[in-house]
Every structure is written in structure tokens, then in C-alpha cells.
Here is the input.
Amino acid sequence: MAGGIREHHGEEMAENHEINVTPFIDVMLVLLIIFMVAAPLATVDVNVDLPASTAKPAERPQEPMYLTVKEDLSLNIGNDAVAREELANTLDRLTGNKRDTRIFLRADKMVDYGHFMEVMNLLRDAGYLKIALVGLESLPAPIPAQDGAVPATAPVAAPAAPAPAGGANP
Here is the structure.
């Protein structure tokens, strides 16, 4: 029988003391879906390509001292290769023991940040605290054209322009 037989024939209805759990189940399923979508977003890695800079190049000295970290983690001062153990002695010889000489530090973009920081620590331990980081300048956005003219672009920036880092903190 589809319908129930009422025992009360009066005008007031009997109270139902059972909990209707259907709305609770709906809410829980919605929350489950939200957390399933949000959980992977909280662990996404951010890819960063650091070597480009829009900073204005600082004035270069007459003979800049470039220290280069190559992709194979070898070090070069200018065009000459130098061992990590001899870095301090070579810098002292080339700068005439002038520890306030600014060292322009540049690295291949494939060099990992930890190795780059090791080289900065070697410089700091050797007493060279004026370190300028060198990167490629990014090209500025094209200038918008007016009245149907051909848009002008800024000249191409020179590579390996120093972006001063203010020195390493001991």
C-alpha cells in the first residue's frame, strides 16, 4: 500500500522526529568536490626564468672584473679558467688586494641557485662584498602607433649588462 493510514483524523499533523540527511549528504559531496579540485592547486610548482632584468644598467668601470659560473659549474675570471680553491688568491692578485673592487657575477641560466649561492659565499669568504649580478636586459614593449603609422620599437638591449645587487650580506 502506497499511502499510510492515519490514526489522527484531527486538524493538526503529527510531528516527525526523524532527521532528513539528504541535504547534509549534498553539502558533503559539494565540499568533497571543492577539496578535490583545490588540493592539486595548492602544490603546483611555479616555473621561473630569472636571468632577464629590466633594471637600468649601472655604469661600468674601465676594466670590469667578471666572474662567470658556466653550465658545468666551472669558474672563469674574464676569459681565464680558475679553480674554486684558487678563487680568493686569483682575485687578490688581479685586484691588487683591493677588497672593495666590484665583482660582476654572471651565471648560465642552467646553473642551479644553490651552486650560484656557493660562489657568492666564496666571494664573501674571500672578503669581496661588492657583488653585482649580471643578466640579460629584456626588451621593452613596442611603442603604440598613432594614426595608422608603423609602430616603433626601442633598440635591442645589450647582453650582459650589470644589475647591481647591493653586495652580499655577511
Q: What stands out?
A: The helical segments are 22-42, 87-95, 113-125. The longest strand covers residues 131-137. Residues 22-42 form the longest helix (21 residues).
